[in-house]
Design a protein that fits this description.
Layout: H1 2-7, H2 13-26, H3 37-43, H4 50-78
């Protein structure tokens, strides 16, 4: 997995750990399967530094999780499961 990180230009220890964390959360080869193909596209961007690439990925993942959480809360509220 870390060899793949190097292919994306990720070489600092901190950024390697951030990349590995994505693999832990999303699974091995997470960047090669739908719906995560956008991650590989972001990480291949030659105009961005490795840290900036990972910042973008993490930001988009957090935004997606917040949206999913709001939908889940809305569904539970509508079903009368939350007060």
């Amino acid at each position: 997995m870390l060899a793949k990180a190097k292919e994306y230009g990720i070489d600092s220890e901190r950024d390697m750990m951030r990349y590995a964390s994505l693999g832990w959360v999303f699974g091995y080869r997470f960047d090669e399967v739908a719906p995560n193909l956008w991650i590989a596209e972001t990480l291949r961007n030659p105009e961005l530094a490795a840290g900036a690439k990972l910042d973008m990925v993490y930001s988009q993942v957090r935004a997606a999780l917040r949206t999913q959480q709001k939908k889940s809360e809305s569904t539970r509220t509508s079903a009368g499961l939350m007060s």
